[in-house]
TrEMBL record:
Taxonomic lineage: Eukaryota, Viridiplantae, Streptophyta, Embryophyta, Tracheophyta
FAD dependent oxidoreductase domain residues: 36-66
Protein name (Swiss-Prot/TrEMBL): Squalene monooxygenase
Gene Ontology terms: cellular component: endoplasmic reticulum; membrane
Catalytic activity, reaction form: squalene + reduced [NADPH--hemoprotein reductase] + O2 = (S)-2,3-epoxysqualene + oxidized [NADPH--hemoprotein reductase] + H2O + H(+)
The family this protein is said to belong to: Belongs to the squalene monooxygenase family.
Cofactor(s), names only, from the UniProt record: FAD
GO biological process: sterol biosynthetic process
Source species: Parasponia andersonii
Keywords assigned by UniProt, alphabetized: FAD, Flavoprotein, Membrane, Oxidoreductase, Transmembrane, Transmembrane helix
Compartments in which it is found: Membrane
Record's function text: Catalyzes the stereospecific oxidation of squalene to (S)-2,3-epoxysqualene, and is considered to be a rate-limiting enzyme in steroid biosynthesis.
Membrane topology (UniProt): Multi-pass membrane protein
UniProt key word Ion transport: no
Source organism superkingdom: Eukaryota
Length: 399
């Protein structure tokens, strides 16, 4: 514990002290006391947390860098445990009207043989199943749900630093969409601005592990990038096992298929290392044709080649990072900014929603978040309580 407080006091970064903002007080967006919680980021965690806290009567201000509908190749498959968390949070309707597909388990392929592995859902309501969808559509629905509450304000802006006073985080400094430099105050600031978080090092010290460049900070979380996902969308075909994710244990690494709408199938090819074949030069297309295509199920082969020819190939690094924050009065780190697992687990959104539920329940007894000592004690419990709810297999989290 002493180490935590030493680390907290000696490694503050991206935190703007009060004195440096005195000349901008007239531009401060909201006076302290009118907002209970500032949330940085409106992804899965930020949007669902804003709704959950707003439903509990909290005044919530969400600041998101880009409020346009995101277009990503991950965050598309929600495990059954994650759907149950949506139900607990009152957000289950966010998978409606986005052409989301039910997922009942996985099919595994190896050496030309296949096996179907259903989720253990026999004792649950028929609505309980996994869901797969376009990530952006799901995020749009979550944001709309949060913004529907009169006490939740959703704003586009770029948070540049945490705002600290006497060792306690009191809010954030940010630039609004029109370029104004503002400060948002609240007794609690939740940082959940994703895997590219620019505030992460204010609340923990990750080390980035790469093949060519290793930046290490002692006793810190490690951001590991072991491979990249290459994504395509297949059309005009059907999966061998309907409403199932498909995992091909291929050479040199797995290939995933799952539906993201009633007419589209997502393919994710895991490519080891960080130096993947170039998409722009056509090297990636050649790799997919010659190395990957011969290993996929025959039912998907033609559509796979057609998707390559269409040219809509995307790539992103796969990141994993254990959560290793240090106590920070007035602030909490959540989501991919705090903790990442390899996307192959398919458990990221389920873990995120579970964390939202833990925090909502933890804060409910606190009528007033302005008691810094009470709030700090409750927040220190969060990182312990969240582990109690974690299942060693992310697919089965809290089922």
């Amino acid at each position: 514990m002493l180490w935590f407080f030493w680390r907290y006091s000696s490694t503050r970064k991206n935190i703007c002290p009060k004195s440096s903002l005195n000349d901008r007080k007239c531009q401060s967006e909201i006076a302290a006391g009118s907002t209970d919680v500032v949330i940085v980021g409106a992804g899965v965690v930020g949007s669902s947390l804003a709704y959950a806290l707003g439903k509990d009567g909290r005044q919530v201000h969400v600041i998101e860098r880009d409020l346009t509908e995101p277009d990503r190749i991950v965050g598309e498959l929600l495990q059954p445990g994650g759907y149950l968390k949506l139900v607990d949070l009152g957000l289950e309707d966010c998978v409606n009207e986005i052409d989301a597909q039910r997922v009942f388990g996985y099919a595994l392929y190896k050496d030309g043989k296949s096996s179907k592995l259903p989720y253990p859902l026999e004792n649950f309501h028929p609505d309980v199943a996994g869901r797969s969808f376009h990530h952006g559509r799901f995020i749009r629905k979550l944001r709309e749900k949060a913004a529907s509450l009169p006490n939740v304000r959703l704003e586009q802006g770029t948070v540049t630093s945490l705002f600290e006073e006497k060792g306690i985080v009191k809010g954030v400094q940010y630039k609004s969409k029109d370029g104004q430099e503002l400060t948002a105050f609240a007794p609690l600031t939740i940082v959940c601005d994703g895997c590219h978080s620019n505030l992460r090092r204010s609340l923990c010290n990750p080390k980035v592990k790469c093949e060519d460049n290793i930046r290490q900070f002692p006793n810190s979380a490690e951001v590991d990038v072991p491979s990249c996902f290459v994504g395509l969308v297949l059309e005009n075909c059907e999966l061998p096992f309907a409403n199932h994710g498909h995992v091909i244990l291929a050479d040199p690494s797995p290939i995933l298929f799952y539906p993201i709408s009633s007419t589209e199938i997502r393919c994710l090819v895991d490519v080891p290392g960080q130096k993947v074949p170039s998409i722009s030069t056509g090297e990636m297309a050649n790799y997919l044709r010659t190395k990957v295509a011969p290993q996929i199920p025959p039912e998907l082969y033609t559509a796979f080649l057609a998707s390559i020819e269409k040219g809509s190939i995307k790539a992103m690094p796969n990141r994993s990072m254990p959560g290793a924050p240090y106590p920070t009065p007035g602030a909490l780190l959540m989501g991919d900014a705090f903790n990442m697992r390899h996307p192959l687990t398919g458990g990221g959104m389920t873990v995120a929603l579970s964390d939202v539920l833990v925090l909502r329940n933890l804060l409910r007894p606190l009528q007033n978040l302005n008691s810094a000592s009470d709030l700090c004690r409750y927040l220190e419990s969060f990182y312990t309580l969240r582990m109690v709810r974690m299942h060693p297999n992310p697919i089965l989290i809290t089922l």
